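Lab channel / #folding
Pinned by the channel admin:
"Please post every new chain as: sequence first, then the structure tokens as a reply. Keep commentary short and put observations after the output so the thread stays searchable."

First post following the new format, from NK:
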Amino acid sequence: MGGANNPALHRMALNNERLLSFDPLTGISEWHSYDEDTDTTRIRSEGDCEPFLERSKNLANDADFSKEGIKSDFWMYASIPPAIQVKWLIEDGIDVYKREHAKRVFKKLADPEYLHLKCTSGKHLAKHE
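Reply from TO:
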């Protein structure tokens, strides 16, 4: 992380944030800041969703991908970037890996704000609550 032109180092100087960790598999960075005036510590997560969104868009536009997946008993309905998974867990209490949250996950994916996560134009009806 060296170099005067490194955006992460620039952010540390501007926002008094320090990089705690970066996961190259998920693309998620964890940042720490401390406000002496209020004696408050803040941990912030961020991640780049663009590669996931581009992939989802390409797959959604490939009708054969969805058809072949269904024929093979595997339908890739959506690709939820790790940064969005963290956001949903923190803000809405939705854990995409819990079967009992499936209905809430599919409801989110039907929301116009998150339609771009879908890898198909098809619709899915969740059976689980």
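NK: The chain has a mean pLDDT of 82.
TO: also worth noting, The beta strands are 17-23, 28-35, 40-47.
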